[in-house]
TrEMBL record:
GO terms for molecular function: (R,R)-butanediol dehydrogenase activity; metal ion binding. Residues 24-127 form the Alcohol dehydrogenase-like N-terminal domain. PANTHER family: (R,R)-BUTANEDIOL DEHYDROGENASE-RELATED (PTHR43161:SF23), SORBITOL DEHYDROGENASE (PTHR43161). Pfam families: ADH_N, ADH_zinc_N. Transmembrane segments: none annotated. Its cofactor is Zn(2+). It comes from Dichotomicrobium thermohalophilum. Residues 170-284 form the Alcohol dehydrogenase-like C-terminal domain. This is 2-desacetyl-2-hydroxyethyl bacteriochlorophyllide A dehydrogenase. GO terms for cellular component: cytoplasm. Belongs to the zinc-containing alcohol dehydrogenase family. Keywords: Metal-binding, Oxidoreductase, Zinc.
Length: 326
């Protein structure tokens, strides 16, 4: 089969690779697969968890062509867990100590014509939903998970909270759409890129502003970027007793105002991916239209994936998401 293979920093090769061996799992023919920020980090050579050579990509949907569910169109939960540990039994399978995710060894990713996954990781797609929308389940589930945790941590329902989301990429924009689906009415998205502000403003019922236009004293901040500057902004924007949800993995340190967070009893929660229930709930919300039109990704052929990565790294893409089509 053909695949887009990460072969070293800023180098991707579109080439023939061996077909995956399904064993007792499902063999899925990929229809659409999104480029994630973590893929970009690996492409830049900044992710030791993703050593070359490796097939990246984990935001995927397609059709099962062999094994469990053969003939069914599915969206793929890329997080494979043991199902038996304390975390899995508690519904926190994203914290499974033996978790694996496609696009990290030992599991190759979905920037390929086919991928193998356990049947339990597949969510069937209704006939009326195109696979390019279903492929957004993975990034949007990150926001769903964060909002669900925020609902438990806030001193008021999310629907009554003043919310700020930092970043209008797919993670931030998805979190804003999830907040709206959960009933929030005061949502502001903060985005430095003017082109992305324009796209984000058309995506949902929320304000999209430049960083200098962001207001403070909000109940909930969701940082979908995760760099020193955005953590600093989140620390300043949240009200006393408020909550910061940190999804982004842009950099590992700096920015948090620990003194203010301590004196003002601000809750900081790191969020990693999603639980299996979050993934299924996000898929259901996409399928019934609660997360909007989801018409903001752009499509590129998988064969032109190397150029898509270069364009993203250079800031030449205004869309929050690039989806590759094998």
């Amino acid at each position: 089969m053909k695949a887009l293979v990460y072969t070293g920093p800023e180098t991707l090769a579109y080439r023939e690779v061996p077909d995956p061996e399904p064993g007792g799992d499902a063999l899925i023919e990929i229809a659409h697969v999104g480029i994630c920020g973590s893929d970009l980090h690996a492409y830049a050579g900044h992710d030791e968890r993703r050593p070359a050579p490796l097939i990246l990509g984990h935001e995927a949907a397609g059709r099962v062509i062999a094994g469990p569910g053969a003939g069914t169109r599915v969206t793929i939960n890329p997080l494979v867990t043991c199902g038996a540990c304390e975390a899995c039994r508690a519904g926190r399978d994203n914290l499974c100590p033996d978790r694996q995710i496609i696009s990290m060894p030992p599991r190759e990713g979905a920037f390929a014509e086919r991928v193998v996954m356990p049947g339990r990781n597949l969510v069937p797609i209704p006939d009326h939903v195109p696979t390019e929308k279903a492929a957004l389940t993975e990034p949007l589930a990150c926001g769903w998970h964060a909002v669900r945790l925020a609902e438990a941590a806030l001193d008021r329902p999310v629907a009554a909270a003043r919310c700020q989301v930092i970043g209008a990429g797919a993670i931030g924009l998805g979190a804003a759409l999830v907040l709206a689906a959960w009933g929030a009415r005061e949502i502001t998205v903060v985005e430095a890129n003017p082109a992305r502000r324009e796209v984000g403003a058309a995506a949902g019922d929320f304000r999209v502003v430049a960083p200098e236009g962001a207001e403070g004293d909000v109940d909930l901040v969701i940082d979908g970027v995760g760099i020193e500057a955005t953590r600093k902004a989140a620390s300043a924007a949240v009200r006393p007793g408020g909550v910061i949800m940190h999804i982004g993995l842009g950099s590992g340190a700096g920015g948090l105002d620990i003194r203010r967070m301590t004196l003002q009893e601000i809750t900081f929660i790191g969020t990693y991916t999603y639980a299996a229930d979050d993934f299924r709930d996000t898929a259901a919300a996409i399928f019934d239209g609660r997360l909007g039109a989801l018409d903001w990704p752009v499509m590129r052929p998988l064969s032109e994936g190397a150029q898509a990565f270069a364009d993203l790294k250079a800031g030449r893409v205004a869309a929050p998401k690039v989806i590759l089509v094998p």
